[in-house]
Specification:
The complex is a heterodimer of chains A (266) and B (246). Chain A is mainly alpha-helical and 266 residues long. In chain A, 78% of the residues lie in helices and 0% in strands. A six-stranded mixed sheet of chain B has the order 6-7-8-3-9-10, sandwiched between helices. In chain B, β7, α6 and β8 form a beta-alpha-beta unit. The chains are: A mainly alpha (266), B alpha/beta (246). At the A-B interface, α1, α4 and α10 of A face α1, α2 and α3 of B.
Chain lengths: 266, 246
């Protein structure tokens, strides 16, 4: 592993984020608008609920919203880091350089971590100021939860860019909606008990399901749900491996079929 | 002469289309080799195989005696390239772009190197200008500057002066030859500018329909084909592919 290579990938993306107003808006603006949306929805739902359950709504729904946003941000920042190379027709320069695939992935991961931390430390105080959301009520669960959310975002990022490599620049739209395919099945805003029994079984393989189910247990029962942490982490580990292999396979296929040059021509 | 690049029976096939068909050649230390051929002859595919962007169907590529497939990162760190279809990121400044590529090529003294290249290629004035705002000639100069960030021992140039006016093109050719001469490196140079290829090349390889149809010095090629200039040889080969192999 050559750290210069990783630094090169990281530096290239951080420059863009630092001075681009649209990119800064994508990082801080969307999440702010969504916080207002979910905040108002939660306040309204709270008025419909019995008085003794009201405090939980803010914590349950807004915490779920914040961590879902971190997941989407993690996936999007990973994917867009690669798409920047496609959009600027720099893919040939990148893959013709001595950068290894693992260094490329690590560079994108670091860009994702930097963005997620910035967004997290921006949105949590804002949610506290606006809606008195005390996210630290999650206790120590916040650490494995945050980690697992980021990691699964990178997995989907690898899948996204693998598909872009395979199907060309027109597949870039996938970067912006792939996470939402998982949203209904990840039990983000409702418990898995809502699902039909068969769907409960199928969704077991999704790390996001265990993360968000664990979040509700941590909030409602005040304990760290070790089984959720365990399953989310194990499944994530398997997904990381599969995601990396998928990206590797797509890249290998692109080198055999000549798809890489198509990424600067389409 | 030590061979820096050795290509043996290199073939690339896409389904039923053979882009490169069993080509073999060597490039020695300090040698500049022109790679010519009509559109679709296999020049770019050959260069892309040398950059590991395309996996050969069969055949071997050895650089400094090591197989490219097995020593990819080590060998790519000693090589570099520029091509008009592969621009540097439009949303960076020239200095940022060169810094990124210095890091990607593992250049330790990258700050000094970037400053040197910006001065040498007359790009130091574009402090706040994004690459996308540069003229095509300036972008091409930047592409060539990028090709020297790591003092390459093997340089692959795919139409490096295509967007330059004759005066700038001459200046750039001189710079490329000077830098590569200082490092005793080798160059594989493609162009549709026959005069350029004749000026810079020690040897010329003609490709047609994926095969090498001639490989010799510019003088010998003229004698063998009975032509006064390379352009006539090019036209002859392009129209009568694979008839004569030298």
């Amino acid at each position: 592993m050559n750290l210069f290579h990783v630094l090169g990938i990281f530096y290239r993306n951080i420059i863009l984020i630092r001075r681009s107003v649209p990119k800064l808006f994508a990082l801080f603006g969307f999440i702010t608008v969504e916080l207002f949306l979910w905040g108002f929805i939660t306040l309204w739902v709270q008025t419909l609920a019995p008085g003794d359950a009201r405090a939980d709504f803010i914590l349950l729904i807004l915490t779920a919203f914040i961590f879902w946003s971190m997941f989407v941000l993690s996936q999007r920042s990973f994917s867009v880091s690669f798409l920047e190379e496609v959009w600027s027709r720099n893919v040939i320069n990148l893959f013709g350089s001595p950068v290894k695939m693992s260094e490329l992935v690590l560079g994108f991961v670091l860009v994702g971590v930097a963005q997620a931390l910035l967004a997290f430390f921006y949105i949590t105080p804002l949610a506290y100021l606006l809606y008195a959301l005390k996210i630290w009520n999650l206790g120590l669960y916040i650490i494995p939860f945050f980690m697992n959310v980021l990691i699964f975002g990178w997995v989907l990022g690898m899948v996204t860019i693998g598909l872009v490599v395979r199907f060309g620049p027109s597949a870039d739209i996938l970067a912006f909606f792939i996470p939402f395919l998982l949203l209904p099945f990840s039990a983000v805003f409702y418990p898995i008990s809502i699902f039909p029994p068969l769907l409960q079984k199928f969704t077991f393989v999704l790390p996001t399901r265990h993360m968000f189910e664990g979040m509700r247990t941590a909030i409602i029962e005040g304990v760290i749900p070790l089984d959720s942490v365990f399953w989310a982490s194990i499944l994530n580990l398997i997904c990381v491996l599969l995601g990396f292999l998928f990206f590797y396979w797509m890249l290998r296929l692109a080198r055999i079929k000549g798809y890489l040059s198509r990424l600067v021509q389409d | 002469m030590t061979a820096i690049l050795r290509v043996s029976n290199l073939t690339k096939q896409y389904n039923h289309f053979t882009a490169v068909n069993g080509i073999s050649f060597e490039i020695g230390e300090g040698e500049v080799v022109g790679l010519l051929g009509p559109n679709g002859a296999g020049k770019t595919t050959t260069i892309q195989m040398l950059l590991t962007l395309v996996v050969p169907t069969s055949g071997d590529i050895e650089i400094f005696g090591k197989k490219l497939e097995e020593h990819r990162e080590e060998l790519l760190a000693m090589m570099n390239f520029t091509a008009p279809y592969s621009l540097l990121p439009y949303n960076l400044t020239p200095k940022e772009g060169l810094t990124v590529f210095s890091l990607l090529y593992g250049v330790r003294d990258y700050k000094e190197k970037v400053k040197f290249l910006l001065d040498e290629f007359d790009l130091a004035g574009f402090v706040n200008k994004r690459i996308g705002q540069l003229s095509s000639g300036e972008q091409m100069r930047l592409g060539i500057a990028k090709a020297f960030v790591n003092n390459p021992k093997l340089l692959l140039l795919d139409e490096p002066t295509a967007s330059a006016d004759p005066s700038i093109a001459r200046e750039l050719r001189a710079k490329i030859l000077k830098f590569i001469g200082e490092s005793s490196g080798a160059v594989l140079w493609t162009s549709h500018n026959m005069r350029e290829i004749e000026t810079v090349s020690d040897r010329i390889i003609f490709l047609s329909r994926g095969q090498i149809v001639a490989d010799d010095t510019p003088q010998n090629l003229k004698k063998r084909f009975g032509q006064e200039d390379l352009e006539e040889i090019f036209v002859t080969i392009a129209r009568e592919p694979l008839k004569e192999s030298i």
